[in-house]
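FIELD: query
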Amino acid sequence: MRPFKFLRTIVGITLLSLIYINLQMQIFDLAYEGKRKEKEIRRLHDHNSQLTYHILNLKSANHLGDKLLTQDARMQFLDINHIVRLENPSRTKEPRRIAGISKSENTFKNLWGFFSLRSQAEAKPIER
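FIELD: result
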């Protein structure tokens, strides 16, 4: 074998070996980078879970009630004496009335509302 051909073969094998080693190093570097990113994702997910827990804790009724009661607010929780009870209209003996409008008036207004393009709301006090 001639020295020139031998030297060319050795240089070619060396270059191919260096390219192969470089590719293997890039593969390992990408693998380590992937592990680092997975670790960072796990850390961020845990941090997100902790923040979600703290937000839900701060929004809880117990925390808000404690916060309102510890401040110098004049608020207090209602007790039995401050509960307002309303009568159910179906249990009362009075005929059904809607804001003091008789049934015939109410029917006429419903028909007119059916034909009109815009709705109209009206509130009247009930006269007793």
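FIELD: remark
The helical segments are 3-59, 61-70, 103-115.
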